[in-house]
């Protein structure tokens, strides 16, 4: 089991796992949001226990808990070979994103914008920690997660299965909007400070930049991922808001 902290993260864990949640610890007091969350949990057959803020602080070990903690099942990691890579596959690769806040925010963007899976290497990446879960605001509970030994190797395997790998690079001569994104695509995002590793760049089919008109030359990884995913959907004509 793993610890999940934060109102939204716990709510999404309950939505995703229901009675598989082994228990909730909620801060004592008349806190309407926490009381509503406790009722939601009990309605799912989850045991809820009231505790003190100091008890939550001890368990959180520095993670912001917002007065609630859940014992949730371990996240399932999907082997690369099991990922669905059909004609409309939309995959997101993460290279060198080591900060849990950035990692979690990228996961939230990926889930919100319909990425079929998130792929990242087991080394030089943020851990799947309570800080990551909270930073994703619970989105990680709904994500298809694929941790691989080698990101370049994963990119090459995807290419063998017909997936076009596009590395986001602020210095690339080609704009992302110039590429055809209608087929199966793997978008690869690097850390803001270092960008893509050379081996990852070399494994990609194309390198492309996101068009920016202002004086800033780079974007936060979660923003870059969101814009790239949105551009893919724009080209595919999917996900239009109702008018």
- Report mean pLDDT, rounded to a whole number: 91
Envelope shape: elongated
- The low-confidence runs, each spanning 5 or more residues with pLDDT under 50, are 239-243
Profile the largest sheet: 6 strands, parallel
Protein structure class: alpha/beta
Brief digest:
With 243 residues, this protein is α/β, with parallel strands linked by helices.
Structural commentary:
- The chain has 243 residues and is of the alpha/beta class.
- It folds into two domains: 2-72, 60s Ribosomal Protein L30, Chain: A; 80-236, SPOUT methyltransferase, trefoil knot domain (Alpha/beta knot, 3-Layer(aba) Sandwich), CATH 3.40.1280.10.
- Helices cover 34% and strands 19% of the residues.
- The protein has helices at 7-17, 32-43, 53-60, 100-112, 130-135, 151-160, 198-203, 221-236; strands spanning 2-5, 23-27, 48-51, 68-72, 90-95, 117-121, 145-148, 164-168, 185-190, 206-208.
- The strands form two sheets. A six-stranded parallel β-sheet has the order 7-6-5-9-8-10, sandwiched between helices. A four-stranded mixed β-sheet has the order 1-4-2-3.
- Helix 4 (100-112) runs parallel beside helix 8.
- The relative contact order is 0.16.
- Mean pLDDT is 91; it is low at 239-243.
């Amino acid at each position: 089991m793993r610890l999940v902290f934060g109102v939204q993260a716990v709510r999404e864990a309950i939505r995703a796992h229901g009675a598989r949640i082994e228990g909730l610890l909620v801060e004592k007091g008349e806190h309407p949001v926490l009381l509503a969350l406790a009722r939601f949990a009990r309605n799912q057959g989850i045991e809820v226990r009231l505790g003190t803020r100091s008890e939550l602080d001890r368990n959180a070990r520095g993670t912001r808990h917002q007065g609630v903690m859940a014992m949730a099942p371990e996240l399932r990691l999907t082997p690369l070979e099991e990922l669905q890579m059909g004609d409309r596959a939309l995959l997101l690769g993460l290279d060198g994103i080591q900060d849990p806040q950035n990692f979690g925010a990228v996961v939230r963007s990926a889930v919100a914008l319909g990425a079929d899976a998130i792929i990242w290497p087991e080394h030089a990446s943020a851990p799947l920690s309570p800080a990551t879960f909270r930073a994703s605001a619970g989105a990680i509970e709904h994500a298809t997660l694929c941790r691989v030994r080698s990101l370049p190797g994963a990119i090459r395997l995807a290419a063998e299965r017909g997936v076009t790998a596009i590395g986001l690079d602020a210095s690339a001569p080609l704009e992302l909007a110039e590429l055809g994104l209608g087929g199966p695509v793997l978008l690869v995002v690097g850390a803001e400070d270092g960008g893509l590793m050379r081996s990852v760049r070399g494994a990609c089919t194309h390198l492309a930049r996101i068009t920016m008109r202002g004086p800033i030359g780079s974007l936060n990884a979660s923003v870059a991922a969101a814009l790239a995913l949105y551009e893919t959907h724009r080209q595919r004509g999917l996900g239009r808001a109702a008018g």
